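Please complete every field before forwarding. Incomplete forms are returned to the sender.

SECTION A: IDENTIFIERS
Entry label: holo-166
Bound molecule: flavin mononucleotide
Molecule representation: SMILES string

SECTION B: INPUTS
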Amino acid sequence: MKVAIVYSFEAKKTSQVAKHITEAWGKDITVLDADKISGKDLHDYDVLIIGAATWFDGELPGYWDEMVPELEQENFPGKKVAIYGLGNQKEYPENFCDAIGIMADLFSTLGSTVVGATSTEGYTFEASAGVKDGQFLGLALDIENQASLTKDRVKKWVAQVKQEIK
Ligand SMILES: Cc1cc2nc3c(=O)[nH]c(=O)nc-3n(C[C@H](O)[C@H](O)[C@H](O)COP(=O)(O)O)c2cc1C
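SECTION C: PREDICTED COMPLEX
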């Protein structure tokens, strides 16, 4: 099974978390810079771990936003996609980690199965497009307000995703 983690190397906190994820994953994970690849490159992998912070009051960061039209030209049936999102629940309580939902919708539409849903317990926010049926559609992280919880959350999530892709 080929696994890749995809995020922008320019995105500071998303990159920090990617390091935790790759460490927790162990070997056999390819690290891809979203700024350097095209949508077609993602066909080479069975499992994608997508990193996306939320920016601009509930939107994707620029680099994903630019890639979306390209991704929409592709189809990724059978792929498993796990999304980790970064946000700030205190500053943006009405759009906390919306990017998780935007990416989950996108990859679902492209035929992929989104894995790695997590509980909203332990977070305080009002609304999030990343939540469906009471769960985040991926892993929500808040480095600004809950930095100390990040490593543990990542560890647990990686173990969960590994189970779900078996
Ligand atoms: C201009 C700006 C807008 C933001 N908008 C949101 C938002 O709508 N929702 C949210 O949860 N976080 C929001 N954030 C918080 C970022 O997602 C958070 O700081 C994240 O850790 C940034 O990750 P990065 O350094 O990898 O880009 C915003 C931050 C900035 C600076």
